[in-house]
Amino acid sequence: IREVDLILHVVRCFDDVNIIREQGAIDPIQDYEIIINELMLKDLESIQKRQEKLNSQLKKQGLSPLEKKELTTEAELLTKLLGYIDAFDVNNIRKAVVECPVQTVPLLSAKNFMIIANISEEDIHNPQNNKYVQALENRFGKDRVVPVCVRTELELSQLQDAERQDFMDMLNIKESAL
């Protein structure tokens, strides 16, 4: 995951009594936050390891003023990032990484992301009427949320071209969400 440019968060945005959810009521925003918190915990490990290495590098003799300045700037960034992680403030983590003139360890929580809102088949034609999709779009913006009926996409992916087109015509779908 460290090597990817974009993380796709797939969250459930439909009610179905036949599908058990151990966390209680459907809440895609909470699901996203749980994932982000896990990513930040991994970032915490990475930052702490990098801080140890930076501290030993800063103690080395013979560093040029430019090298010392870059290492000091990175150390300051890491300290700031730790504060944001402690506050579970993912927005400031992303902002700090983008605005800093030096690079540091790649942070999972700072990666660009989109949210795949897994909707029901009933919501295919009007996903904006889905209360969960609305909540996600209100929180993250319409450009970050892609409503997809994963069940329908799975079925489409298993069909031959002619059958796929017939199925799409039957459902009045112009193109696959994928």
Characterise this structure.
The chain is mostly helical and 178 residues long. It is 52% helix and 10% strand. It is built from six helices and three strands; from the N terminus they run E-H-H-H-E-H-E-H-H. It has helices spanning 28-59, 65-86, 90-99, 131-140, 150-157, 161-171, and strands spanning 6-12, 112-118, 145-148. It has a three-stranded parallel sheet. The radius of gyration is 22 Å and the shape is elongated. The two termini are 21 Å apart.
Structural class: mainly alpha
Residue share in β-strands: 5-15%
Major beta sheet, specifics?
A: 3 strands, parallel
Q: Tell me the helix content.
A: 40-55%
Measure the end-to-end span. Answer: 21 Å
What is the approximate shape? Answer: elongated
Strand order of the largest sheet: 1-2-3
Count of separate DSSP helical elements:
6
Uncertain parts: none
Q: Compute the CA-based radius of gyration.
A: 22 Å
- Kindly report the average pLDDT value: 91
- Strand-and-helix sequence, N→C? EHHHEHEHH
Number of strands: 3
How do the helices and strands line up, and which of them pair or pack?
Layout (H helix, E strand, L loop, with lengths): L5 E7 L15 H32 L5 H22 L3 H10 L12 E7 L12 H10 L4 E4 L1 H8 L3 H11 L7
Summary of the model, kept short:
With 178 residues, this protein is mostly helical. The chain has 6 helices and 3 strands; from the N terminus they run E-H-H-H-E-H-E-H-H.
Can you give keywords for this protein?
single chain, 178 residues, mainly alpha, three-stranded parallel beta sheet, 6 helices, 10% strand
